[in-house]
């Protein structure tokens, strides 16, 4: 996957911004970054779009800037010159796609029908925007289209909120979702940066879905692993289940048949997407043991350990 697309996928949510005053672009960008969403699609719906992109590119370099509502070659040129790393349009115009590709731009044209998607694929695109998503049938329509278009991925935009976000992102062929709910015009005009940051954090929390899955206890040997698991069963009704390298007491306690990672054992944290969890935790300075990475047939990370231990426990992120 293209590196910019990979970053967009890891971020998971692309705020779609219509900004009227370019002077507010930098504090807005900093609010989004603080909230865990270091990207934005700045739309050409306003005259301030180009200046906003230039300001963000100059002062918030960690922000991945895209240009939206790009309808003409002239707008596309201005967007690229201002620092845009990807180009988004509301509809599919093959001439615009060809022009953008000739400029080396990452193109994400809007599509709503199979015919438009096939034309995009014929031009070499493997990711397209699905717009307006909810009005065009939402995730149900995308899943129906995914049958014949197994190699195509979508970025749904239009009607996406925290309430239906995971309906989309839980499907493998969704690269990310675009949305406006964290950058509503009244929030920007009122310079309510802390509120924007809080909304972004809540969206990221919903997207990652981090939760405790189980605690692994290091036991000296098989006999102790069985005894400990059966004791949890006797005390709390956590059903004993024997395994190859460990025994479980219900789903909450794993008793290792020989000492594993961690002084005392390990703690498993579930995530909707391990790759996105690694990206967002990594932005907070968390380091991962790359030798522990496990992936599935689709190339998605299913398990990874943090380098650090917490309270004598190794920590690993696993796909729910």
Notable traits:
2,3-Dihydroxybiphenyl 1,2-Dioxygenase, domain 1; 8-stranded mixed beta sheet; 320 residues; 2 domains; 12 helices; 37% helix; alpha/beta
Q: Catalogue the unreliable spans.
A: none
Structure class = alpha/beta
The total count of strands amounts to 17
Radius of gyration computed on alpha carbons:
23 Å
Biggest pleated-sheet summary: 8 strands, mixed
Overall, the morphology is elongated
- The fraction of residues in strands falls at 25-35%
Order of helices and strands: HEHEHEHEHEEHEHEHEHHEHEEEEHEEE
Share of helical residues: 25-40%
Q: What's the rounded overall pLDDT mean?
A: 98
CATH superfamily of the largest domain: Aldolase class I
Biggest sheet strand line-up: 11-12-13-10-14-17-16-15
CATH class categorisation of the largest domain: Alpha Beta
CATH architecture of the largest domain: Alpha-Beta Barrel
Task: Describe, in plain words, how this protein is organized in 3D.
It is built from twelve helices and 17 strands. The protein folds into two domains: 3-207, TIM Barrel (Alpha-Beta Barrel); 211-319, 2,3-Dihydroxybiphenyl 1,2-Dioxygenase, domain 1 (Roll), CATH 3.10.180. The strands form three sheets. An eight-stranded mixed sheet has the order 11-12-13-10-14-17-16-15. The chain has a six-stranded parallel sheet with strand order 5-4-3-2-1-9. A three-stranded parallel sheet has the order 6-7-8, covered by helices on one side. Strand 6, helix 6 (114-122) and strand 7 (127-130) form a beta-alpha-beta unit. It is elongated, with a radius of gyration of 23 Å. With 320 residues, the chain is α/β, with parallel strands linked by helices. Helix 2 runs parallel beside helix 10 and helix 3 packs parallel to helix 4 (73-82). The protein has helices spanning 3-11, 25-34, 49-59, 73-82, 94-102, 114-122, 138-146, 165-169, 185-189, 193-208, 222-236, 274-282, and strands at 13-17, 39-43, 64-68, 86-88, 107-108, 110-111, 127-130, 153-156, 177-179, 211-218, 240-242, 246-249, 253-256, 265-271, 288-295, 301-310, 313-319. The mean pLDDT is 98. The longest helix has 16 residues, at 193-208. 39% of the residues are buried.
